[in-house]
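Handoff note, outgoing to incoming analyst
You'll be picking up this chain. Sequence as last confirmed:
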Amino acid sequence: MASTSPTNEPKKSRFRHGSSGGATKADGASSTRGEAKEPGRSAQFRQVFETARANDPALLAWMIGAFALVFVLLLIIGFSIGHPIYLGIIGVLLGVLAALLVLARRANTAIYKSISGQPGASVAVMSSLRKGWFVEQEPVGVDMGRNRQVRDLSGAAMVYRAVGKPGVVLVAEGPKGMAERLLASENKRTTRVLGPEVPVHTLRVGTDEGSVPVERLQKDMQKMPKVLTDDEAARITKRLRALGSGRPAAPAGIDPTKARVNRAAMRGR
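Most recent structure output, in case you need it:
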């Protein structure tokens, strides 16, 4: 007598429906993440160009001039040796490269000018230094003066620190009198900690006499004579950070990270 066994029937998993639903949710989340894509290279290039041109009206003329100079020069060489088409194509490629180099150089200058006078402009420039520099993202000294509005740093003086092969570089920004006093105090403290063997350079960012424009800060720091090795700079940085708790604290309620400029926007992202 034939009997029907329940084991011959396929069992339905009570979790199958839930798993399918979970997969659907995951797919939906993936598609949502896919829609929020970062802008492409062309969009980033356009954003950088528009930002730079807004602060440098002559940017387009410089780019066209760089392209034309390279292209015409190679075209003349091509006619002189009997290969104008070949060198003309090379001239187009190198001309585009020259125009992009001009854009990169003048865009940096234009963007630095656009953030001049803003709290944290100094550290934004210092953070773009090449490897070999150890830059503190937070100010090592803050003087609010009479302003007790902790969220308003527009009238505050701040000192930022970087350590590299030239030694220790202290950069002050803010009102001249307050910035100079704060810079002198931090210079004295740093020299006392490290001794006279380690050079300590002081700079004040501003537009008045005796100050360094923010767009020139990076260049001036890179021109400083190099006297330390990378290992020595790293050891000095660790020592200063370890002793950092000994310096006067920033006024209560100040978040020093709020004094930084958004460098992602500077890169056109």
